[in-house]
TrEMBL record:
Gene3D superfamilies: Spore Coat Polysaccharide Biosynthesis Protein SpsA, Chain A (3.90.550.10). One of its GO terms (cellular component) is plasma membrane. Pfam families: Glycos_transf_2 (PF00535). It comes from the Bacteria. GO terms for molecular function: undecaprenyl-phosphate 4-deoxy-4-formamido-L-arabinose transferase activity. Keywords: Cell membrane, Glycosyltransferase, Lipopolysaccharide biosynthesis, Membrane, Transferase, Transmembrane, Transmembrane helix. GO terms for biological process: lipopolysaccharide biosynthetic process. The keyword Lipid metabolism does not apply. This is Undecaprenyl phosphate-L-Ara4FN transferase. The chain crosses the membrane at residues 231-252, 264-289. The keyword Transferase applies. Residues 7-169 form the Glycosyltransferase 2-like domain.
Amino acid sequence: MGNPELSVIIPVYNEEAGLPALFDRLYPALDALNTGYEIIFIDDGSRDRSAAVLRGQFEQRPDVTRVILLASNAGQHMAIMAGFEHSRGDIIVTLDADLQNPPEEIGKLVEKVREGHDCVGSIRQQRQDSAFRRHASKAMNGLRERITHIKMTDQGCMLRAYSRDIVEAINSCKEVSTFIPALAYSFAQRPAEVEVAHEERHAGESKYSLYALIRLNFDLMTSFSLVPLQFFSMLGISISMLSALFVVFLFIRRLTYGPEAEGVFTLFGIAFFLIGLTLFGVGLLGEYIGRIYQQVRHRPRYRIGAILEKQATEDTKVTEI
């Protein structure tokens, strides 16, 4: 049995309630494409019954279903990396399990890759997220583009398609923290984007809290650009020059008017502002150093507990531990 043309990779984390609806829509949508495909579900250390539901689905469709059970939660992007490393298709599509991106839209991305594009992103139309999340996403898109020069209209949409060459390039990277769409874009020679529909989450709640979104954007900024560090270097030089001029001004003023007690609280305000700025810069430097520390330890990015898949030579499942 040869490799399929299409691999669909879906990370799953505590999605027990929404998985049956995903199955009901995903398999018919892929069957309608009339091409060989495989679906790789990666359970990212779920604490509900998601793994059991995935196992049950594997029993029903072992011909096109593969399930990777991670031993612990590794995060969405590392779960996708696990899927990349086990995928066999020429076209690899990533999809969230919450049904906000309809599986029926996968065909649009597949056709775009067939046209010769090696990295195909998607742009959500009429987003069903909160106003705060839409505006925050737009602001982060603009900031990210200025800092990293990576042009993605909608960085938060994980419905994306990649050619086999791009996935192999990603697999060759050994980064312990990364942002896959940006990493793929850095390798792409013919990127493209398509518009896709967007729906409300079918069940459950978003796994990305405000803190998690901030952390994700820190990963994006610090993994693909040194601009934040360079900005603080330039800012430090500018403040040093201004401070030197301010000291000269105070010295001349003292010689001209003599000692005075006025302006003490203004100086306190300036001092507190500079202290806060310094602490923020030290924190940013710590982000980069922390990533270096994680990288040099060479710990595995994820651990696989088991793999459920159909053998190529036998009509049975294999469980690897």
